[in-house]
Amino acid sequence: SINQMGGVFYDDSSQCYFVCSHNPAAVFIINRVSGQIDKIMTDADGNRLQLCINIEKDLHNNLWLLTDNHVYIYNRNTGKFVLFPTPNNGTKATFRDMLHDEEGNYWFAPYNDRLFYYNSVQRKFTVPKDSSLRRIRNVTGINSVGNKGEILIGSFGEAIYSYNLFTGKKVNYYNEKGEVAYSALFLINDIGKNANGTLWVATTSGGVFMYNPGMPFEKAFTGFDMKAGFTNNNILSLCSDDDTTLWLLSGNGLSAMNTEGKFLFDLKDELPFNFTSYTSDNIFPHDIFFSSQNKELLVGVGGGLLIHSVKQKDRVASFPIVITNTKASGET
Question: Is the terminal CB of the chain with fewer CB neighbours within 10 Å at N or C?
Fold first, then answer.
């Protein structure tokens, strides 16, 4: 069975969980304090929502809902989603991700349309410095590289791109120079950021890649996959805790690695779902989320929300061992 749940999010301001659902098309808002659950199926104007995909937060603490055909801003006072008109005019776009960049402008990443760039000063959608960005299709992820004016744009079936907001320079990462490992970067599922701002890329067949900004082309990405101990190379989504653990979602369930690239453990034996609960259509993301405030890992699965409490036992401690003496058959 296909996982009909989309992205999940915890909003510190309202103390609510947000859970997106493709079918039925709705957003479930769960108050963590009272336990009240609201099922939102229409926008502020009473129009039905279509395939709810992701909840994102911008730099001003605004929440955004990405759906199959529209983008909305959430009004915390009214509990309503207000339409934010986009160039596709309501046609199918499948908005997977968005970014509020350092210049205060917005990028919207639709799988079934072109990359949309909104200039906040001009208050309209415009063309970025490098107009070729508008030709990127099947965009699956977009994220910023620290505070360096650089963003990464991932697609499903093309490549991954680095773009400098200030200079307008774009770099395409693909197999042009014979880097065999980069072939997996054609099929991007998600781009996440760890606690220190490093970007990590989840792929369909190559595990995960760490981005090394400023390095030469052939060293720009470092890959980690089943050769490094992973139990699955198909990573649907990833997120970071507030320390050094990266959480990975695959068709098998949840697993963890550290930011040094070491695979830590699988959680599949501890979770109440079998592997079919996590399988997904590649078009729709299933973004997982770590709540730093509550130390909880959130996953949309099995027709609802899975909350995994991340306690100290989930952290694998490392201790240096110094051998000071050995004994064999009673002799030192």
Answer: C
**How far is 174 from 178, CA to CA, in rounded Å?**
9
Query: Cα separation of 9 and 31, whole Å?
Result: 12
Structure tokens at 196: 């220190």
Q: Are 115 and 105 in contact (CB under 8 A)?
A: no
Asked if residue 113 lies in contact with residue 70, where contact means CB atoms within 8 angstroms, the answer is no
Give CA–CA dist 81/69, Å, rounded: 14
Average pLDDT by consecutive 10-residue portion of the chain (332 residues)?
Answer: 84 97 94 95 98 97 98 97 97 97 96 95 95 92 90 92 93 68 84 95 94 90 90 93 93 90 81 53 85 94 86 43 36 46
Rounded Cα distance between 159 and 9, Å, is: 28
User: What confidence score (pLDDT) does residue 157 get?
Assistant: 87
The closest alpha carbon to 210, from 222, 192, 194, 224, belongs to 222
Q: Edge-to-edge, what's the strand order for the sheet holding 106-110?
A: 95-100, 106-110, 116-119, 124-126
pLDDT at 117: 96
Distance (Å, whole) CA 55 – CA 17: 10
Count other C-beta atoms under 10 Å from residue 24's C-beta: 12
CB atoms closer than 10 angstroms to residue 35: 7
- CA 114 – CA 134 distance, rounded (Å): 6
**Placement of tokens 């909305």 in the chain:** 72
